[in-house]
């Protein structure tokens, strides 16, 4: 699976949109982009995933560049409960589709 | 509906003891994964089951680690002769694998809360 690069940490203002970047320049055509987050002392929580089109659900939006080499997770109105480590993962479809988490991006939402 | 559950949530073991960690996946989920998360790190893959078959155990760090899922639902991760370096959070995840899925379909993994193992 392709490797991803994220900031080690970032702060976001409560009530504002939080834009979380991820680089995956070696992504291949059959790899999806997945986002998970992990709130302290909890298991990872699935947020969203996509292949090449932008995706939106009740939690977030995922914007994937046309060349698929990077993506941005958007939390539209960050709350204090969004403070967590966010993981951007690329993964081949099917088979043993293990998740390669990396160290993630520690996002702190500030009042 | 009910999510993935794990027990116990916390386990303290003396070095050399054997431990067993349980995972109850979401009902009907065919695939089950175990991950290990050291302090300050992301989760690392240990092993994968499809139904009762253990299809990949390449992430198990040593032969002291053993996992089973005899009836294709509940899974147990056993660690024999625990060492201090085994201290970590052990996470279980399950996903619904649809054998008839279209090409390119992927399976979202849903995680349990984890078991924090501390070896003294």
Q: What is the count of helical runs of chain B? A: 0
Order of helices and strands of chain B: EEEEEEEEEEE
Q: What does the main sheet of chain A amount to?
A: 5 strands, mixed
Q: Stretches of chain A where pLDDT falls below 50 for ≥5 residues?
A: none
Rg over C-alpha atoms of chain A, rounded to the nearest angstrom: 13 Å
Task: Describe the largest sheet of chain B.
Answer: 7 strands, mixed
Average of per-residue pLDDT values of chain B: 91
Strand content of chain B: over 45%
Helical stretch tally of chain A? 0
Distance between the termini of chain B: 37 Å
Please mark out the parts of chain B with pLDDT under 50 across 5 or more consecutive residues, or reply none.
99-106
How far apart are the termini of chain A?
Answer: 37 Å
Gyration radius of chain B (Cα, Å) is 14 Å
Would you tell me the structural class of the helices and strands of chain A?
Answer: mainly beta
The amount of helix of chain B comes to: under 10%
Number of strands of chain A: 9
Shape annotation of chain B: globular
What would your notes on this structure say?
The complex is a heterodimer of chains A (111) and B (120). Chain A is globular and about 40 Å long. Chain A is 0% helix and 47% strand. In chain A, a hairpin with a 4-residue loop joins β5 and β6. Chain A is an all-beta fold. The N and C termini of chain A lie far apart (37 Å). With 120 residues, chain B is mainly beta. In chain B, 0% of the residues lie in helices and 46% in strands. Chain B has no helices and eleven strands. Chain B starts with a strand and ends with a strand. Residues 99-106 of chain B have low confidence and may be disordered. Chain A binds chain B through residues 30, 32, 42-46, 49, 51, 85, 87, 91, 93-94, 96-104, and chain B through 4, 33, 35, 41-45, 48, 55-56, 59, 91, 93, 95, 103-114.
């Amino acid at each position: 699976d392709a490797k991803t690069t994220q900031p080690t940490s970032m702060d976001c203002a409560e009530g504002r949109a939080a834009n979380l970047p991820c680089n995956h320049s070696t992504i291949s055509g059959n790899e999806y982009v997945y986002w998970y987050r992990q709130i302290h002392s909890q298991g990872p929580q699935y947020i969203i995933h996509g292949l090449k089109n932008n995706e939106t659900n009740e939690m977030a939006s995922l914007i994937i560049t046309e060349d698929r080499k990077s993506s941005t997770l958007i939390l539209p109105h960050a709350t204090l409960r969004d403070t967590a480590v966010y993981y951007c993962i690329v993964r081949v479809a099917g088979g043993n589709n293990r998740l390669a988490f990396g160290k993630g991006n520690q996002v702190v939402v500030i009042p | 509906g009910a999510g993935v559950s794990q027990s116990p949530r916390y386990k303290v073991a003396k070095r050399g003891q054997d431990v067993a960690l349980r995972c109850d996946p979401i009902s009907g989920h065919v695939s089950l994964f175990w991950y290990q998360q050291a302090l300050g790190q992301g989760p690392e893959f240990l092993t994968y089951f499809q139904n009762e078959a253990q299809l990949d155990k390449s992430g198990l760090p040593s032969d002291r680690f053993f996992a089973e899922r005899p009836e294709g639902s509940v899974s147990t991760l056993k660690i024999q002769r625990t060492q201090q370096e085994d201290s970590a959070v052990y996470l279980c995840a399950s996903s619904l694998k649809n054998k008839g899925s279209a090409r390119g379909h992927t399976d979202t993994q849903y995680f349990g809360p984890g078991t924090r193992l501390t070896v003294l």
